[in-house]
């Protein structure tokens, strides 16, 4: 069963972390810049580590070029 979460991304952060706001809302700080998909890759890697799932289980459904994203966890 896939779960969808809403993620706010803070690129160029000094420290990488994931903060849970509610059951389906998260804020993710990544050190990667928001260009050429670098921040998206960092978000997927950090969320995979946070949820202890492989990176292939995560998919950005909406918001590839936005700070607010919808991510599916399979």
Give a structural overview:
- With 74 residues, this protein is of the alpha+beta class.
- The protein has one domain: Conserved Hypothetical Protein Mth637, Chain: A.
- Helices cover 19% and strands 38% of the residues.
- It has one helix and five strands, in the order βββαββ.
- Strands 2-3-1-5-4 form a five-stranded mixed β-sheet, covered by helices on one side.
- Strand 2 and strand 3 form a beta hairpin.
Q: Which shape, going by the Cα principal axes?
A: globular
Largest sheet: 5 strands, mixed
Class of secondary structure makeup:
alpha+beta
| Overall tally of domains | 1
Q: Do you know the CATH architecture?
A: 2-Layer Sandwich
Span of the ends, CA to CA: 6 Å
Q: What is the gyration radius calculated from CA atoms? A: 11 Å
Q: Helical stretch count?
A: 1
The CATH class, by name, is Alpha Beta
User: Approximately how much beta-strand content do the residues carry?
Assistant: 35-45%
């Amino acid at each position: 069963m896939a779960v969808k979460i809403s993620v706010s991304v803070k690129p160029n952060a000094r420290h990488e972390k994931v903060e849970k706001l509610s059951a389906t809302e998260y804020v993710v700080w990544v050190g990667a810049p928001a260009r050429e998909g670098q921040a998206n890759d960092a978000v997927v890697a950090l969320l995979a580590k946070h949820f202890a799932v492989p990176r292939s289980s995560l998919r950005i459904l909406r918001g590839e070029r936005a700070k607010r994203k919808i991510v599916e966890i399979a």
